[in-house]
Design a protein that fits this description.
Blueprint: H1 2-23, H2 30-76, H3 110-115, E1 127-133, E2 136-141, E3 146-150, E4 153-157, H4 160-171
Antiparallel strand pairs: 1-2, 2-3, 3-4
Helix pairs in contact: 1-2
């Protein structure tokens, strides 16, 4: 994306230079004033595109730094800092996945609770993201588990695969 902004910025500045050269002799006429106006517009558009290229370059560098830091922490065996981790999902009332339907209540597995009991010395998973869609809210945790809160009830899924299988079964 930064390369696209850079190319658009340079093209706009080139167009501004060409427009300036074309408008010098015609400045006293209406067409000359039109050229000058377009030149100024192209010049500032070029500056804006170059600024956007710089911003996207810095965002990419920041993202790489955060990912490098988290991978070093994972290599040491420490959990990555959830405040620095890139968000897994965006909490939003307005963004709903197009294929998402509300979660329909199903009978929870009673036997699953004993099988998935965490060891006593394990740390509880941390919340890494939230998502809201179709009247339901979803919490995503560092261990990959998902909690869904709907008006039909609360559900917990061990993984994204289990959650998708549940949704597919509900759609029929």
């Amino acid at each position: 994306m930064k390369w696209l902004f850079l190319l658009l910025g340079l093209a706009s500045l080139g167009a501004a230079a060409a427009g300036f050269a074309a408008s010098i002799d015609l400045l006293t006429t209406e067409i000359g004033m039109l050229y000058a106006t377009c030149t100024v517009s192209a010049f500032f558009a070029g500056l804006i595109f170059l600024a956007l290229a710089g911003v996207t370059h810095r965002i990419d560098a920041l993202r790489k730094t955060i990912l490098r830091q988290n991978s070093r922490e994972l290599a040491r065996g420490a959990a990555p800092d959830p405040d620095l981790a890139p968000p897994v999902a965006v909490e939003s009332q307005w963004e709903a996945a197009p294929a998402m339907s509300p979660v329909i209540a199903a009978a929870p597995d009673e036997g699953r609770a004993e099988a998935e009991a965490p060891p006593e010395n394990a740390e509880p998973p941390t919340l890494v993201g939230r998502y809201s869609a179709a009247g339901a809210s979803y919490n995503i945790f560092s261990d990959g588990s998902i909690e869904a809160q709907t008006n039909q009830g609360d559900f917990r899924f061990a993984s994204m695969g289990e959650f998708k299988a549940f949704l597919a079964a509900q759609r029929g």
